[in-house]
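Weekly modeling sync, notes
Attendees: S.R. (lead), two postdocs, one rotation student

Agenda item 3: backlog of single-chain predictions. S.R. asked that every request posted to the team notebook include the full sequence so nobody has to chase files. The rotation student volunteered to paste the first one in as an example of the format we agreed on. Action items at the bottom.

Example entry:
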Amino acid sequence: MSVEVSDVPEANRYEARVDGESGIAGFADYIRTADLVAFVHTEVSPEYEGRGVGSALARTALDEARAAHLRVLATCPFFAGWIARHPDYQDLLYQSRSEVSD
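Predicted structure, as returned to the notebook:
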């Protein structure tokens, strides 16, 4: 099974297609600024669950964030869990630099 992931900026999401099919097997919604990309929701069609579609979405999106020098805010539980299991992507995570004190 071949998974192709592409960024669809006009829809603010990455889309995954399997074996050249026209239908979407999964997607990852994001909000992007000049310095940050926040992954807010990921969904994989039930027939493709457990077949690597979510991982392909995460890996492609995070590799592109790295290439664009963007920090990542993983509010989506899938992305947060995926990054936790793949330490080589943890350096992308946004760290608040706020020094607000009581």
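Discussion: group reviewed the output briefly. The radius of gyration is 14 Å.
Action items: rotation student to repeat for the remaining queue; S.R. to check formatting next week.
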